[in-house]
User: Fold this.
Amino acid sequence: MTTFDDRERAFEAKFARDEEMAFRITARRNRLLGAWAAEKMNLTAEEADAYAKAVVQADFEEAGDEDVIRKIVGDLTAAGVEIDDGQVRKALEEMAVEARRQTIESM
Assistant:
């Protein structure tokens, strides 16, 4: 039975590591997306940093990416930047690739 128990513990540990990695990548992606949006809104460095953190926090409102996309589109529109969901989704995909690369390189 110990071999089975060892395998079970190994699978559980791998699952936990994979979930933590996914969380880190998503948080990093959201921070990069926030920085991208802050640049479009011409925010100062301090404002941009605070805004990027706010975007990361916005992801905790509901499951999925819709809360983040809604925040970015709403904020950019309020700032007078012409943008639509498609452009934000494209940036979100680009930031996901970059966030994965940065996270993997930092390990």
Q: What stands out?
A: The chain has one domain: 2-105. Residues 2-40 form the longest helix (39 residues).
